[in-house]
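The following record pairs a protein chain with its ligand, coenzyme A.
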Amino acid sequence: MSSNAQDIEIPELPLVVGRGDEDQVRGVRESRVTITQLMTPQDTNLFGNVFGGVILAAVDRIAYVCATRHAGCPSVTVSMDQVDFRSPIDIGEIVTLVAEVSTVGRTSVEVCVQVWAESVTQSHERRLTNQCYVTMVAVDEDRHPVPVPRLRIETETEYLRHHDALLRRSARVERAARRQAAESTEAD
Ligand SMILES: CC(C)(COP(=O)(O)OP(=O)(O)OC[C@H]1O[C@@H](n2cnc3c(N)ncnc32)[C@H](O)[C@@H]1OP(=O)(O)O)[C@@H](O)C(=O)NCCC(=O)NCCS
């Protein structure tokens, strides 16, 4: 799901979104995180490529850092949207993860994580191997959800990401309602 500027009307920017802490606003760029790591033999599967789980763990960690930077307090992972592995990553390749907040609710922060792979010995061409969305919830010391700062959207790209995030949120709510209905039917 990815909108482009021709399909939707872009409002006047900057724009502040979110239903959390009325007194605090943070820009998307303030919590942006980039991590680069070298893939080593301990990361391999039987085919000599990197285990998918190694990438998922790195995605979860960077989403934590990004959401926690935005929230200003710890957060926990509540959901990870569909993750597709578009191409294998080889040992010796450099993997760069980039995380950015796509939208915020009252206590939740959706983080878009992109995973890029690059061979340092061959073409140096960077390829996008994964893109996924992680929803983190800010919590206090008793693990109760707490309001997060609202989000300042400054660019067209940031607005399109936020727009798509709202569509994903509605889809998640519908899915959860369907699941709940199915579970209560099974229980009868
Ligand atoms: C995260 C957690 C504290 C939320 O508790 P909760 O009782 O569901 O809280 P709420 O119903 O108030 O929901 C809090 C927010 O999470 C969002 N949320 C809840 N379930 C969600 C899901 N499956 N997907 C996306 N967002 C979800 C809600 O929409 C709400 O967002 P908002 O405040 O921005 O509107 C609780 O579910 C939890 O502790 N989960 C385990 C987290 C964890 O341990 N992760 C590591 C796994 S090893």
